[in-house]
Structure formats: C-alpha cells, structure tokens
Fold this protein.
Amino acid sequence: MSSHPPTNDNAMAVRQRAEGLLRRMTPAEKVGQLTQYFYFGSVSDQESPDGSGPLPQPDVIEAALRRGEVGSLLFVTDPAETNRLQRIAMEETRLRIPLLFGFDVIHGYRTVFPVPIGMAASWDMQLIERVQSIAAREARAVGIHWVFAPMVDIARDPRWGRMIEGAGEDPYLGAAVAVAQVRGFQGDAVGQKERLISGPKHFAGYGASLGGRDYDEVNLSDYELWNVHFPPFEAAIKAGCGNVMSAYMDLNGVPATGNNWLFSQVLRKTWGFDGFVVSDANAVRDLVTHGFARDLSNAAVRALNAGVDMEMAIADPAFESLPSALESGQFSENDLNASVLRVLEAKVRMGLFENPYVDQSRAEEVLGDTRHRTESRIAAERSEVLLRNEQELLPLNVHEWSSIAVIGPLADSKRDTVGPWVFDFNQDETITVLDGLREKAGDRVTISYAPGIRRAHRAFPSMFDMFPGNIPDQQPDFDDDVEFQRAVKLAADADVAVIVLGEWQNMIGENASRSSLELPGRQLDLLKAVVGTGTPVVMLLMNGRPLDLRWASDHVGAILDIWYPGSMGGHAVANLLFGDVSPGGKLPFTWPRSVGHIPMIYSHTTSQQPEKQAHRYWDEESTPLYPFGHGLIYAGFEYSRLSLDRSSIRAGESLRVSVDVKNTGYREADEVAQLYIHQRYGASSRPVRELKGFQRISLSAGEVRTLGFTLGPDELRYWNAASKVWTIDATTFDVWVGGDSTALLSTSFEVADS
Ligand code: GLC
C-alpha cells in the first residue's frame, strides 16, 4: 500500500488501489469484507437485542476475524478495544485489510444533543450540521469510522416510535435536515479528518409501517414514494453520503433488504449512488422469516443480487454461505467483486490502510472539550417549541415570584434527559431540568421538587435493556398516594408550578410503538390536580412524537416542548423559562388531537367538500391541535410586502419571492419564515400547501428584514403517478409566507404553457 492515501477527488486512484487488493483475495476473504458483526464485548452474555438468540461470543468473532472473514464491527467504542481488534486485522490476517468500525451516533456520542426530531424542530440547518460535526469528532476520536445516521424516514404516524429519530412528516424539511446531517458527519466528502462515513437509513419507506407498528409491512404507492419518502434519501445521496442502510420491512410485498428495484433501479441507476449498502441488523437472515427466501443461502444470494453489499449480523451471518453459492453459480463473481470494491474503496478513502489505529491519548482530550457542551445547550435552546403561552405566563416573572415547585420524575431523570439511542453517557455531566432551574434560581427563587408519581412506567421490555441504566428501578418503597398529595401540596404553596411530563425514554424509539398517545400512567391525573390548585402551571413536555394534549391545551397556562434535550437540557430549559433566550423552534409535524385522528398531515389535497375539512368526524373537530410549523416566541412577528419578481414563468424557469418580516415585540427573538405553495389545477390534485422554503432569522425588537426565496423546477415539480415522470404543469400557483403552515399572507403566479 502506498504511503499516501489517494485524495477523494481522484476516484480512479482509489479504484485502482481497491482492485489491486481484490485481485489477491479468495472468495472467502471477499465475503469476509462484506460481513459486519455486532461486537458487544462485556455484555455478550445477554440475549440478542432482537430476541433472535444468544449473542456471539467475542472469541468466535475474533476467530472469524483472524480467518479474514470479518470486514466491519459495530458497537465497539473503547479506543483500546478498537485498537486491539484492529491489530488482529492488521497483523494476524493474510491480507491485513483494516476493519471499519460503525456505530449508532444518532444525536451525539459523549456530548448528547437533543433527539433528532428536536433538532429538526430548530429548522436551523447550520446548527444541525455543526452538531453532527461535533458528534463525528467525538466518535472518530474513539475509533469509530462510520455512523448509521441520519435516519431520514418520513414519519406521519406518531404511533411509530422511531419518529423520534427523524425529521418529521415533510419531505422538504426532511431533505434539508438530511443534507445538513450528512455534511456534518462527513464534511464535503468521505475521508475527511475527524469525520465519519454517513449512512442514511432505512431505505425505504420504513416510517409508514402498518398501524405505526414497528417492523410491520409498508404499502406505499409510487406517488407517495417519489413525492414523500424518497426526497430525503435523494438529497442525502446528492450530498455525498458514503453508505445507505436497508430497511427491515416488506415494501409493497418485497422485503426492502431483498428489493432489487430499490437498490439497483432507484439508488444506483436513477440517483447514481456509488457508496456501499449495508443491511439492517439480521435483515438478510430475516428474508427467510419474511417468507421471501427459501433458506439462509437463498437469502444471502438474493440480498447481494438486490444490491445489498454488506450484511450487518448479530450472529451467524447468512453471507457465510456465499462462497459455496458462488461455486454453484447462484450469482456472478463480478457482482461479488463490485460489492467488495465499494467496501474497500470506503476503507481507502478513510485512510485506514495508512492510519488504522486510533490515538488513545487524544480521545479524552476531544471528549472533554467543553465547547461541545456549550453547543449542546444552544442546540437544546433552539430546538424547543413553545406550544402555548396564555397571558404571557412565560418568561417567568422572577421579579415578582419567589418560589417555583418543580413536579414530575422526568424533571430529575438524567437517563430520560438524554433520551433513547444513548448507550453510555456521563451522568455527572448531564443537567436535568431540576438541576438547571436550581442553578439558575440561585438564592433569588426557592425551588422545591416532588416527583408526584413513580419514575418509570414500563410499557414493555426495551431492546436497550441490556445497557446500563435502561431498566428503570421499580421504587418498591414509593407510596403513590403520599407522593401524589405531596406534589400537589407543593404546587399549591408555590408562586408557579413547573411540571415535567411525557414519555419515558424507553417508551419511544425502536421497537417502541404505542396504540395510544396519552400521557403515560397517572401523569394526566397529576397535571389536573396541580392545575386544580390554582397555581399558574408551566408544562414541559419530554417526547419524541405528538402526545394527546387535548386537556392540557385548554387548561395549562404554558406548554413548552423540550423533547429529550440532551446533556445540557436543564441549562437550556432554565434559560428559556427565565427569558434569557426566546424559544424559536417550530413543529416538524402536525399535532393530532388524539390517536384516532392519525394520520393527520398539513399537506393533504383539497379532495371533496373541503369546506367540511374541519368536520370529517361526527365526534370531534378534525383539525390539528397545533399545525405543522407552529411555535410561539417571546415577541411577535409581522409579515408584509410579499412580492414576486415575475408574475408568469415557463416550466423550467425560476422566480424570486420577497417578503418583509418585522419583530413587533419588545426583545430580540428568532423566527422561522416558511414559504408554502399550492398548485390550483393540473395533471394531478396537489396538496393544499407544501413547504418549499424556510429561513430562520434573528431580529431585534422593531427590526425589519427583507427575505428572498427562489421557486424553480426543483420546488414546482412533482412525480406524476399517471405518466410516471416528474412534471411541472401549466397552472396557477398560490404562494404563502408566514410563521407556520396556516400563513395568510399570499400571492400567486402563473406557469405558462411552454
Ligand atoms: C437497529 C436499527 C438500526 C441501527 C442498527 C444498528 O435494529 O434498525 O437503525 O442502526 O440496528 O444498531
């Protein structure tokens, strides 16, 4: 191997190096490069997270590694362990090909950021890119090369727990967030210093699982795939992501992981993706479970032929049977070689042949960088969404009030503050809501605390139970009635009550779907009792999906959605409640009134009798509790002078939109100006509104700023289900600009017949 890795822009040199190695490889070694194992090390004595049986023992994996039959490992995060395993690959195998280490760094590694749905609520792409670049820096410092993120699945059914991992319901916002994350993780291209390979997932359509039940089948029309679920993936690929992960479930009757149309036609032929594809965990073996593959050998062949390059295996990889399947001519060696080359090229680009090891001495220095925690606090401040603020209860009037009662076990739970998909975190460093309020209040305000209800409502075993701190204690000595009354009394005696409610972190995420959106356990009872004291109440919501807030939205003075705010969550919440910072977040999804209204989206078509849109149900208004893009601020914004530089264009041309935004409040604040369009007629019925532009801006009190947006082919086209091509109709478009999807300021323009 030469001493200087080829730079990213000379793809030929990268390919030549990989081909030189490929020529020397046996079929078993080739398949080895396509095999990735979970390596849990110390917790390997437990059951596999997917219930498929015992985890493979480390010595079994290391023996396979020495035979050259392992190309990648995941879940190794100790730099010393990474180096030990890498040394086996580099010194005890025939070809000395370095291992690729992958991990789920979804919202931070050592520094935990708000969960992805919360980051999306910031509508701040620069922030998201910065946050993921920090996550990449910390992960790379411990020897991780590849991240299974961003999760870009569009989710429109909040019963599906993995909504928390994505960017919500909208393809335009989802695509922007996908690009920001890929760029944050990778930089401009695969192989940059302190960056990772980014692997958007799960391709494709996973967020539309039947009934919101994780892993259940997905049936989506081409119209929905091309117009709603594909755009974030296409955007991630155009941003240069080095990897894509397959989805678990059946898509229109064909398992995504065995779906040649997805990987060969869409991903590679249509979008030109040249990175490598990895299956989700055991998803190749599961092609047998799906009733798709005859046996494991058939599963392996069909996954490879579909375009899946690497198998992520918890144990007993199906790919083990590929060498014999090759001999019996079940697939061509050219296809095998193409997959191996893509994996080798990723390793070449990452410079692993020249620098296979991680600098253990530097890891602690990077992880200890306090600038990362500052960014986490800023990210939490900018992601939180003020849903309701009656009589401007917020910011808290600490000049008049001298006592705050903090209620609810989530206020004092470090584990829940960091949220799911965090396997190991620094407890001492994690600032809960209670910590943050106590620190902020100092001796100015008395902070009292009572949980009121038990810490954890165990909905069902979580796939992460095998990691420390994930199995909530049952608090056998907790006296429910005494504690409940104590909390209510505390609220009654205080000037204001801050109650923290929501889902326990193991109630949401993977394998955590719910058939209801209600606040768990006795939380609503506690809320009603606290409100019943007459003390003004601020409700802080910890969640990753919309929950049933019908009672709260009528009776609670202020509601702030803080998501799972991450390591510095408590500081961010205190700054927002005390008014140092104004909330600026906006909802990345439509908030349904209850589970019975699902799916509820803003970008529906006019369809039939639109005048009755709000009354489709006999028993309840069929409108959102809070609209897509909603979020209040500690100020006011006024939109005016909406204008277009052209009133008519031809298909393929663009026009500029201009609008003035004024901060009519008394203080500086952020606003997310959102642009929506509607096509009045054409070859398809199109949504009543579609997000096609947004800008987050900071304005001082009284400041006016003119914003510009462009509307062109990318914004005006849609995939036409009848003609099966991207289409721009000759039509009239309405344009709205405002602070959420109900914006009223509007204008229109024509697309003339070409
Ligand atoms: C999980 C998830 C996937 C994750 C992978 C590795 O089952 O579906 O998102 O990246 O396994 O943990």
